[in-house]
Prior knowledge:
There is one protein chain. 18% of the residues lie in helices and 23% in strands. The protein has a five-stranded mixed sheet, with helices on one face. By secondary structure, it is α+β, with helices and mostly antiparallel strands. The radius of gyration is 36 Å and the shape is elongated. The longest helix is centred in the middle third of the chain and has 18 residues, at 137-154. It is built from four helices and twelve strands, in the order ββαβββαααβββββββ. The N and C termini lie far apart (82 Å). It has helices spanning 31-42, 111-116, 121-128, 137-154; strands spanning 10-15, 20-25, 49-54, 62-64, 83-89, 162-165, 172-179, 190-195, 205-206, 209-210, 219-222, 227-229.
Amino acid sequence: MTxxxxxxxxxxxxxxxAASAERRINPSxxxxxxxxxxxxxxxxxxxxxxxxxxxxDRQQATSISAExxxxxxxxxxxxxxxxxxxxxxxxxxxxxxxxxxxxxxxxEMPVETYSSLPDTVLAYKKSHQIGxxxxxxxxxxxxxxxxxxxxxxxxxxxxxxxxxxxxxxTRRGTVAYVGLVPGIPGIGPWVGIRLDEPAGKNDGSVAGQxxxxxxxxxxxxxxxxxxxVGDWKELGLEGDDDDLDEI
Length: 247
């Protein structure tokens, strides 16, 4: 079937009491062809449609009608881009007022049916053992948590030790907590730091649960790999004034 659309298609705004939509029409169409296409947009049958053309720079509308609408083409009217074609009806009873999409009942596929289909995202995850379908997922989490604890032991991270938060060398503080923090998403232990300066995120508490005491904005929780313990003195107390280049 040959399409009526050509490179001469023109975007217009179709306006009716039931709908307003942007469509592309072709000047080579007849009035009858246009009305046939407008029925699905407006709900008004072709026999009851009254068409008028409104140009962007003109207030007065021009009627789109002819004695022989089956052969009269739209090219007889000036159709600039985004002109408005208003569609009214001679028979209000024949107009179908379309309900909003939110009011239209939607099909919801039962979970059992979706689970049985072969070409779905769910089926792909099952066949490739991704996410919750990975039989080794619980073991992987356990290994990751165990590795974090080993990292804490290897780095000698413990409450009371001085530390610096990598990659910075200026965010220094004291380890105030080592352990789980259920209020933070993720698995494994966290290290709570009481910072020397107010460059943190909290006051030592998360989601209403307190883990250590400090002033607001002096507390922060980080993963063990960001903590380096050592003889990190508070900035400005090293007594090495010769290296200062700013005051």
